[in-house]
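ugh ok fine here u go
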Amino acid sequence: MKALLMSVLAFGVIGSNAMASSGRDYECIANRLQAYNSSIYYNLSSSDIDAMITIPEMFGHIDAINAEKACITEEQKYQCTSDRLQAYNSDIYYNLSKTDIDTMISIPEMFGHIDAVNAAKSCGLL
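structure:
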């Protein structure tokens, strides 16, 4: 039992550190959530926001996801798209520029078009 408790505590520390470095704009997300409903969403910490975003059963999950999407910059969307393409196939998709991604998305005959469109959609670029 003690080992299980230690594992849970260790995961909590590691998980919270990983989430803290997620690159989220916590101030923007908190402001948007307060704009949605200031009587519910107030004094939100980065841990509160991380939990709301990552745990589907958490109260406010959908609102937090929508707020996070609205706070992502264009540059972050391109970086996300590039990262997802590299995750699909790092041998083919590497060192992609904004122009490379735009070209792959806009030309249906281009190699990687479907992968680029899917990655861009999942990152909010399209």
